[in-house]
Design brief:
The chain is mostly helical. The protein has 11 helices and 3 strands, in the order E-E-E-H-H-H-H-H-H-H-H-H-H-H.
Length: 281
Amino acid sequence: MGKRNHELVIHVDPHLTLHVGRWEELTEGDGTCYRMVYPPKQTLFDQILLYLETIVAQSPRPSTTQLTLSEQVRAILAVCLRWGSCFAVLADEAKTLWPMTNQQKSISLIADAEMARINIETLAALEQWLNILRSDKEHYLVLVLAAKQLPLPLKRIIVPPRQRERLLEWAIFAECMRSLAPPQERSQLIASRGEADWVEQIQQKVLAHPTRMLANGIINMCWRNGSSIENFHAGAYAPRPLFQRRITPQQEQILPRETGEMLAVALEIVLDLIDEQSGDS
């Protein structure tokens, strides 16, 4: 039986309030109390996109010719991850810091269900963001400029060589899958990796939802499998508060930096594929 039912809201800036969902306090048969959190009716990404579209509509048409890769990656981090997912709840600056956060090396700061929600919301948001890029690049660039209004501690993305090396194998595999590589050479590359069966199994899924699969791969590689987020997610269980901040300002700078470095390489590959003049579908 529900005791309390409240909306979860995050105040991003004076002009944007995100409705993150609602929570309900329930009681088990043995008297144990717990909170059930439900997602919002309108996704966080859609709320942010509506806000960005309002900024664009009310502003003079800006020049997008000087937009850098770093600025585009920063927009992805702000729109799809920091504010476009449940991560906004964990890093809400309006809340007091959870004391257990200081024991981060031994305590898991993010529950499995919370991590799953962050992953799903972020990759779904990235899919929509990439679809905007593919369908109307000029409008996408205008939205990137508008996204500068969203707070994010990371101002610039610098991609060190080591991150390029980590994504090199993925990039080569993506390259060999394209029709630029001769069919025989492509087949040899796949076979040499022992992945011929894997490619055959998922081919239809990829063809049915190509951008979703791409977004899923990018988020897994650049966010979910990053060492920093895994450190915050790993550790012993402790009852986690809903109304205290669990990510410190210092940690909030580390996470986007590592994710952003990887995203920069991934986005560079995506932009090359989109801008490429070819007959590929």
